[in-house]
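MODEL INPUT / OUTPUT PAIR
PAIR INDEX: 1
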Amino acid sequence: MSVVVLLVTATSFAQSKVGTIDPDFILAKMPELTAVQTALKEYNLDLEKQLKTKLDTYDTTLKAANEKFDSMSDADKVAKQEELAGMENDIAKFRQNGTQLVQLKQNELVQPLYKKIGEALNEIAKAQGYTQVLTVGNNTNLAYVDPAYDLTTAVMEKLGIKPE
């Protein structure tokens, strides 16, 4: 019985074909990336405009409060200070969340490109009989990868991107 299991396991392993792909390299070469970068830049500018509006509103409110501060009642002073503190907190949160918002927008814009890469990879891997494809790139710690099994160029060609 163990001989049969060993034989089946050896046969299954022998039929495995493992390839690699660097999707970030492909993404960097995709012409659609220019539109993504432009949209991301516009989004970033929009966030900057929103921040400027918040800062301008805060400055206007602060100047008006400073001009009337001596003539305000104690209750009005406290209310104005609370309003300004609330505006300061809102500005601080907006600045803090700005980086996260840009990252989320970038992910949203890039996701369709990764999907396109994945679809092309699926077609190539099936057509060429690959059973597994590993992602390589900047964050990969593979000890050895035979370049003959790298599908990056094939996927780029399928997407109409000229490898350089």
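PAIR INDEX: 2
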Amino acid sequence: MTVVVDTNVVVVANGNSQQASAKCVLICTEKLQQIIVGKVKLVLDDGRKILEEYMRNLRSNGADVGDRFLRWLLINKDKMCDIVSITPVDGLENDFQEFPRDNALTDFDPADRKFIAVAFAHSDKPPILQAVDSKWWNYRDTLKQNGITIDFICENDIRHILNLPESE
């Protein structure tokens, strides 16, 4: 199995998200651990956009879970991760040829488009792990129609943030 991991998953695992429940922190920690032990393969971009975002939000010399994940990633990314190419459009920082051209995604957060592009560029179209970034919720159906699955690993936390009833 392969996955793309949104930055909020590693931030939550680090304990740096006030809106994440203790259960969500545990789930994020478990997901990162599955990658570290080789049960799940992480997908990154060859331009290091995702890695650089992780590096802006974590400390490779830190002791928290997300920090240790970053340290592992810096050492093992070339042999333990799938690396795909994403192509910037007209030299723009946050627009990629691999991002779906769907009018319903026009307002999708430009800073998060790299995750969609990476998932779309990979042959398996892996799911994107999402913890508590509620901005993604309203795009989940449109993304699915475009071949991208968002795995809301802390769905009840997202529902709580958005004042929606919890799932069963």
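PAIR 2 NOTE: The mean pLDDT is 95.
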